[in-house]
Amino acid sequence: MFRKCSLPRNRFWRISPGRSFATHAEPLREKDCRSITPPYNDLIGNLDRVRKILNRPLTLAEKILYSHLCDPEQSLSGGGKIRGERYLQLRPERVAMQDASAQLQFMTCGLPTSAVPASIHCDHLIQALDGADADLKRSIASNKEVFDFLESAAKKYGIEFWKPGSGIIHQIVLENYAAPGMLMLGTDSHTPNAGGLGMLAIGVGGADAVDAMTGTPWELKAPRVIGIHLKGQLSGWATPKDLILHIAGKLTVRGGTGAILEYHGPGVHSQSCTGLATIANMGAELGATTSTFPYTEAMRNYLIATGRAPVARAADEAKKRGFLERDEGAEWDDLVEIDLSTLEPTINGPFTPDLATPLSKF
Known about the structure:
Residues 62-361 form the Aconitase/3-isopropylmalate dehydratase large subunit alpha/beta/alpha domain. Pfam families: Aconitase (PF00330). This is Aconitase/3-isopropylmalate dehydratase large subunit alpha/beta/alpha domain-containing protein. The protein has 362 residues and is α/β, with parallel strands linked by helices. It has one domain: Aconitase, domain 3. It is 32% helix and 17% strand. The protein has 12 helices and 15 strands. The strands form 5 sheets. Strands 6-5-4-7-8 form a 5-stranded parallel β-sheet, covered by helices on one side. It has a 4-stranded parallel β-sheet with strand order 12-11-10-13, sandwiched between helices. Helix 9 links the parallel strand 10 and strand 11. The radius of gyration is 21 Å and the shape is globular. 42% of the residues are buried.
């Protein structure tokens, strides 16, 4: 029989050489987090301007998005519907690039450095064939010219560089750069993975990323907001993956198009931070602009465990000021209700994200 694992949640574990059991890994030493901590005072000040214009309760997605407006009065004044109608001029706080995806365009702008913190991640050119070691060696040999160019470009323009073998871009961003309340652009469709830390992370093309890197206002049609209310807790072998597949079955692969999926309710707080990241990551399979969650204790623990305690402390204060959660009475464009206790493990194929089959019906 299988025994239920009794290891505490929200912990990191490592396998010690020569041993067969995991040992607890201590949280990383605190990093210098000045470049990754959102300017909460400025964002909340901008949000105060937004509240005077709209005079209504706001969803979390609206709070994060509208607090990054270049000029709230210009974007929001005049009455009428905003979500799904207005075009917003925004200032993202960070850009993450996979391989060669925006650097060439940025180099033509003639600027000495990126206007916002940015990073380059070399992972998409590593083809999986024979195993990690062999695949990495082959990729470095066959793409050496590209990797050398990216590294030199990063040094010239003050961009952080993650060499081949450092890890997949989405996990590096989650472990090092993501922060509650941040607005980030990434040149990959699964950039929303970082939404697991209570932010808006949006996948874009290279030209959009260059807008942020040059300090040019980035334009986005105001997304609709779909509320997803979670109650209960996952049980048995059910995982966050099963939750997002269940939602995909309800909304289909087009149901999130032009919308932000905003999760709320007590069920959110029973999930791990990495579990929320999985849910946000797969929101791309529904066509969603991105996904987000209110700031939770699990997020706080994850920030501390990954050496970002200063970000956690700043987020704690921002939450006290009402920034990292929705206003009571905020309205959705659509609402989905889910009882986590009713979910079960599901099976799916590679091309049918919205046609998962529960094990009981397999």
